[in-house]
Amino acid sequence: MEHNIRNKIIIILSYLLIWALAMIVFWFFTSGSDAMSYSLMYLWIILPVTTFVESVLIGKNDFFGKGKWGFTLFFGLMYMLAEYGTFKMANNIAVNKINAPDFGMIVAGVIISAIGILLGSLWKKKH
C-alpha cells in the first residue's frame, strides 16, 4: 500500500516538475526570437508527451480507481495554464491588459490524457 501511494505522488510531482521547468525556461531563458521554438518544443511536444505518458501510467496502474478520469481535467487545466502562464501572460504584461485564457487548451489536454488513460487501462486488462 505504501509503495502505491509513493508511486502516485511520484507521478504527480514528476508532471508538476516538468510543467514548472517549462515555465522557468520561458521566463528566464527565452527571448522574443525563441517564441516559435519554445512553443513547438514545450507546448506541442514536451507537455503533451508528458501528459500522455503520465496518463498511460495512471491507467496501467489503475491509480485512483475511477477517480483516475478526473485527472484528465487536471492535465487539461495544467496544459491551458502552461500557455496562459507563458505567452498570454507575456502579452498581458506587454499591453498592460488582462486577456482571458484559451479554454480550448483544456479540451486538448483532456483529450490527450483521456487517450493515455484509456490505453493504459487496456494495457492493464491485457496483462
TrEMBL record:
<feature type="transmembrane region" description="Helical">
    <location>
        <begin position="69"/>
        <end position="87"/>
    </location>
</feature>
<keyword id="KW-0812">Transmembrane</keyword>
<keyword id="KW-1133">Transmembrane helix</keyword>
<feature type="transmembrane region" description="Helical">
    <location>
        <begin position="35"/>
        <end position="57"/>
    </location>
</feature>
<feature type="transmembrane region" description="Helical">
    <location>
        <begin position="9"/>
        <end position="29"/>
    </location>
</feature>
<feature type="transmembrane region" description="Helical">
    <location>
        <begin position="103"/>
        <end position="123"/>
    </location>
</feature>
<keyword id="KW-0472">Membrane</keyword>
<protein>
    <submittedName>
        <fullName>Uncharacterized protein</fullName>
    </submittedName>
</protein>
